[in-house]
Amino acid sequence: MGTYTISGSYIQPTFPSLGHSPFASKLPFIRKLGFFNSAACAGFSSFEVKDVSFRPPGTQLYLLKDVSLSLPEKRFGLIFGQSGSGKTTLLQLLAGLSKPTTGSICVQRYDDKGHPIVSPEKLTPERVGIVFQFPERYFLADSVLGEITFGWPRQKGNLQLKQQLALNLQRAINWVGLSGIPLDKDPHSLSGGYKRRLALAIQLVQTPDLLILDEPLAGLDWKARAELVRLLKYLKTELTILVVSHDLKELAALVDCSWRMEMGGLLRKEPLAL
Ligand SMILES: Nc1ncnc2c1ncn2[C@@H]1O[C@H](COP(=O)(O)OP(=O)(O)OP(=O)(O)O)[C@@H](O)[C@H]1O
Ligand SMILES: [Mg+2]
């Protein structure tokens, strides 16, 4: 593992090349590095939504009906479908921001032959990073560093925790290619593409097992879109990613599994026909 140095107002990458938003409550940031230590044991893990239905409390209308999906680790999943069909609603459930009315959201471990081993584990919110549509609208701090570290523990002590956070910070900044940006720069003055990178870095500091992105390319120009697609291609080698998007062509090369959300909250598996 590399070390970190904060030199002047830049973070100097010393790693080998290897989100606050209103959701800063998803602390603690410190996460294990790696997914279930999968290198150590054979088989694989999969994020699984099983027969999930959702009716907002106090309403009669179901927004999601018997939704099921399975996304193996280090895969890139895409959900597409009409506006108002329930895509964002499903992401909110995956991130733990709402609870399913019925059904379950868990992580299942399988052996090499695809047989489940051990019981499924509940997917907890700490294991999920979510970047909402137009995340830059939620920026609150007046510096890049302030934005990333918003909500971090401020009290004295717990040096080990702070060192680990700093390491995670450096790695996240390197991952998203923000290392050339001064840390005291006003996040609102960044270009559209760099604002999205910053929003990603905020989530990546937590080292989520599952990274969820709602319409990540929306509102960006063609160059920023192409750069973000390249970045997602890289992040796919490190994380499991689930994206909601209308931009099927641009993301098609990354997609391992795809689903269409039908109006009324019905999800069905559908390969991209491109
Ligand atoms: N808390 C709520 N109470 C009642 N209805 C809601 C609530 N939240 C969302 N809805 C409705 O649920 C439906 C699904 O909304 P959702 O935002 O998940 O759609 P979406 O597929 O993400 O759409 P878009 O592509 O426009 O982002 C919409 O009809 C929306 O108005
Ligand atoms: Mg939506």
Automatic annotation (TrEMBL):
Segments passing through the bilayer: none
Keyword Zinc-finger: no
Source organism, top-level taxon: Eukaryota
GO CC term (a single one): chloroplast envelope
Protein name: ABC transporter domain-containing protein
Domain named ABC transporter: residues: 47-274
One of the record's GO molecular function terms: ATPase-coupled transmembrane transporter activity
InterPro entries the record matches: AAA+_ATPase, ABC_transporter-like_ATP-bd, ABC_transpr_CbiO/EcfA_su, ECF_ABC_transporter_ATP-bd, P-loop_NTPase
Keywords: ATP-binding, Nucleotide-binding, Transport
